[in-house]
Amino acid sequence: MDISVLDGSSYLKGLLLLIRKDHKISKDEHTLMTRIGKTLGFEKTFVENAIQEILNNRYITSTPPVFSSRELAEKFITDGFIIAASDSEIHPHEESWLISVAGKNNIDQEWVSNEKKNILQKKKHERQLEVDNIKVIY
Fold first, then answer.
1. What share of the chain is helix, strand, coil (3-state, %, to 5)?
2. How far apart are alpha carbons 113 and 60 in whole angstroms?
3. Contact of 109 with 102, CB cutoff 8 Å
4. Is 34 left (phi over 0), alpha (psi -120 to 50) or beta?
5. What is the pLDDT along the chain (138 residues), one digit of tens a residue?
6. Measured between alpha carbons, how far is 42 from 68 in angstroms, rounded to an integer?
7. pTM of the model
8. Three-class SS of residue 2?
């Protein structure tokens, strides 16, 4: 799937906002975010700095991203659940925030619940990030 630079930026920022919801960043979350940043075309140093600063940067608002398509929003939510579950729990604040992203992108609660269930039923090594099928067009 080809996406715009704006959608790619929203994708990365949105996932950064997600990982700060439980006030900690696990090693697995860090690894996944680094990989996602690279896939979306961001420089490694930029991504590393963004991960390190997200917990304490009070100037970044937690406004849920709105994407240019429902399909992209669904991919984002799927990846969000994969990241949230990477530390062996989906914190209630993480889930709530993903639900708010769904609402902003006109995705119903039932789809979100089913997607969460699907992610949790898979073993960690079986979870495939949706971002791997995304290409940012400059």
1. 65, 5, 30
2. 28
3. yes
4. alpha
5. 999 999 999 999 999 999 999 989 999 999 999 999 999 999 999 999 999 999 998 888 899 999 999 999 999 999 999 999 998 889 999 999 999 999 999 999 999 999 999 999 988 888 999 999 999 998
6. 20
7. 0.95
8. strand
Q: Give the containing element (helix H, strand E) for 3.
A: strand 2-4
Residues 6+ apart with CB under 8 A from 137: 2, 3, 4, 5
Rounded-to-integer distance, Cα 13 and Cα 83, Å: 14
Question: Any idea what the Cα angle at residue 62 is, between residues 118 and 78, rounded to 5°?
Answer: 15
3-class SS of residue 22: coil
Sequence-ordered list of residues with C-beta below 8 angstroms from that of 30, at least 6 positions apart, any chain: 51
Spatial contact of 132 and 35, defined as CB atoms under 8 Å apart: no
* C-alpha–C-alpha distance, residues 117 and 2, integer Å: 27
What is the predicted pLDDT for the residue at 85? 95
